[in-house]
Amino acid sequence: MIRDTTLGAKLWAAAIWALVGFFVLNLFAMIGTVVTSSFATRWLGTWLPIGWTTRWYDSAWSEFQLGDVLIVTFQVVGAVVLISGVLGVTAAYALARRDFPGKRLLVLLFLLPLLIPPITFGIPLATVLYRTGLAGTFWGVVAANLVPTVPFVILVMIPFIEQIDPKIEAAARVFGANTFKLFVHVLMPLLLPGILAALLLVLVRTIAMFELTFLVAGPTSQTLVVALYYAVFAAGVRAVQSIDAMAVIYMVTTLIWLIIALRFVNPTQIVTRAKQQPAH
Amino acid sequence: MTIALSQFDEVRLDHVSRDFGALNALRDINLTIRRREFIALLGPSGCGKSTTLNCIAGLLPVTGGAIWLDKSRVDTLRPEERGFGMVFQNYALFPHLNVRQNIGFGLKMRGTPKAEMERKVDEALRLVRLQGQENKLPGQLSGGQQQRVAIARAIVIEPPLVLMDEPLSNLDAKLRLEMRAEIRRIHNELGATTIYVTHDQDEALSLADRIVVLRDGVIRQVGTPKELYEAPAHLDVADFMGFRNKLKGRVLSHENGRAVIDVEGAKVSGIAREKLAVGAPAFAAIRPDDLVAGEPGPNALAVTVDTIEYRGREFVGTARSAGGLDFVFRSHLAVEPGAAIHLRAGDERILVFAEPA
Amino acid sequence: MHQALVPTIIHGPSLRQRLAARGFDSVTLLVLPAAIFSLCLFVYPFAFGLVLSFEPKSGGWLANYERFFADSFLYETIAKTLWLAVPVTLLNLVLAVPVAFRVRLMRHQRLLTTILVLPITLGTVLVAEGLLNYLGPQGWLNRTLMTFGLISQPLKLVHNYWGVFASLVITGFPFTFLLTLSYVTGIDPALEQAAATLGASASQRFRHIYLPLLMPGFAITFCLSFVQAFSVFPSAVLLGAPAGPTRVISIAAYQAAFEEYDYSMASAIAMIMGFVQLAIVVGVLASRGLFYRGPASGAKG
Prior knowledge:
The complex is a heterotrimer. By secondary structure, chain A is mainly alpha-helical. Helix content of chain A is about 75%, strand content about 0%. Chain A has 2 domains: about 10-55, no CATH class; about 65-270, MetI-like (MetI-like fold), CATH 1.10.3720.10. Chain A starts with 6 loop residues before the first helix and ends in an 18-residue tail after the last helix. In chain B, the strands form 4 sheets. Chain B has a 6-stranded mixed beta sheet with strand order 6-7-8-3-9-10, with helices on both faces. A 5-stranded mixed beta barrel of chain B has the order 11-12-13-20-14. Chain B is elongated, with a radius of gyration of 24 Å. Chain B is built from 9 helices and 20 strands. In chain B, about 25% of the residues lie in helices and about 35% in strands. At the A-C interface, helix 1, helix 3, helix 4, helix 5 and helix 6 of A face helix 3, helix 5, helix 6, helix 7 and helix 8 of C.
């Protein structure tokens, strides 16, 4: 856009920044409310709590069995990341390197789970999983979470693999690498940044994936976000501060991985695959 | 002719400067462009030639000085209020509009009546020889055709000034020569005042009435192609004009416009182009065409041939002196690599410049 | 001896070679695990759900659908969901476009995009919990408004329509914005400069250059943002009035499945939900055909 220096243009710009500022302010105030509340002794009808304490973290930890929940969460996320990595990268490699009849249909098939909201396909999926007895189990939760993550890895990796010149692989073959050596010495090092980025995005998305886990999880296979939902749902039974302490634990868990992920990916990639271009 | 020219006398850049933060992209540019003139801004990348063009177009605000169209100041106007036509490096054709709509865009923005618009667009299509292509989208055109649309779009609004930003740099060598002739033809037919940015001295020499050589945001020399080609004022301009041999030496004498310098113990005399102090470092600049293999004597340097390339009518060779100076020369005879020869040039063919600051 | 060579020449290409010529070889087979997985866990459940929805617990094969469209408690969920999803999506898009145009000029966009990606990453459950406190009668928002004398009574912003609306803006706006930003940055700035030199004012440049080039992108952004808002679930339960104005269609589907254990009915509702989304998405995407859809970088360079 051409920078304009007239008064009208400046007012317009100021209005837009005010809008962004308003949004960000509310966002931080919302997060701040949760954090403040989690450290509050009593907080009713005042700007700030009467006193500060960390005991809600102890009570949340024991009341909600957060130790177990966290272990389950990381097991689920780990399994989802590994399996979607293996399935997704291999499929993406084939789709990026070969043209075959039905490829467009297949790509559409992989695109659909990302376009259709989880709650829509989650209900029939949960039905099938309940019929087969998988629902409520650890592997049922993993399977449900894989439905959007495998296509996600495929669609992130296809353009990444396409931009690697196939001649590099041809060159490795010419210099005597067999398929295994080609994979280990040439492809893996080249693909690693892309795989890392894709898997970190899967990780962040899976920690926050509520709907699918919620629909298929049983008492022993809930992840943190589902446990948080139940806690908020049953608010009134427990102290608000205790729920907020749990929310803070959830936030910290998510944010640690988000910060790690953002070292390798652009924030925009969490939403879209489009490459950022410099404005000039 | 239906595409008329705006009536004005001159465009004047008056002490124009442009800073990017601490960096001076343009420093104190003074230049007057007369009506119907074709001016080329020539220089290496990063010299400020595109910045100058963008400042004139209004795409970049100037940070000092003023730009005048006769008596009216234009640098304070927004680009859309200046009414200059511009041809962009990547053409910047609107991909969603067909050829006719692209060319008519500027007229539409001005609220030109439909009949007049059609007439002018037809005239522009004829001028750039694109009749029959008017309903195609830019994506369906070849590079040369896109270039023609970009030119037509810029001239159809009858601008006082047409700005061209390296318009041929995206074309292959053959098409570039063809479009160069087209630009020349259109300029001859229309006489539109043009500022043309390029880094290619052949383009500048063949197209322009006057050439402005820029370097590091400063005008180094302004002159006709002949003046620049024959009498560059500085070493860097000479370099751009094809003086590929630059022999560093020390000034022995400087009088009556002639200078003698000592290059690796040999005396080289030539025409002094700058003020020279006796004893100071200086450069003798010689075109490869003027450097011939010959006998030892005045203006001759002993060299060893490095490479020799066959170029059809002649050979082009590179050579190196004992002191490590590099030479490019032409020869009608095949000289063997490794041969020890003497290279010499006539007094009138050697220009002597002071060492650049 | 020499004749032994002849048959290999007469034979046509082997099956393997013929398959390879059409693009099927061992590399292509790498796609199979993911494809089988997708068939088992995405296509099959969907087909199963569709069939199941026509096998109601009682009544004829259309009984589930008849019940849905006869019971106002059920069919009204469609209108309630649309009444949330459509205004929120339009608002988010209308806000995101000018912001994206402004942010595109920024040199350091990353801080802002990182902040905006926070609510998306944290997810709807956390946003619901945060807003319950923040927008509540004793929350900071109402306190601030009362301190400045803008209101005398706390606004009721939770456990109703506006609570869900706010949560959909908090998570939906960044999503819409980041998508819009990626489309806006995809357009060559030289096109706008060219339009400016040809005399187009800022508003004309937007109308004649950016808008037509961005329309297809806006359509996709609208669709993706819309389906997100349409399938709102946790915040509608936690922040809204799940028995009243924010009884959205996903709540109806969830209750059928996990409170009445009527999977057949739940599948029918899920199919209706999918159908409504599909109808709107297809409608919006079909209108894309009216616009230019090629590369937006000023033709090939």
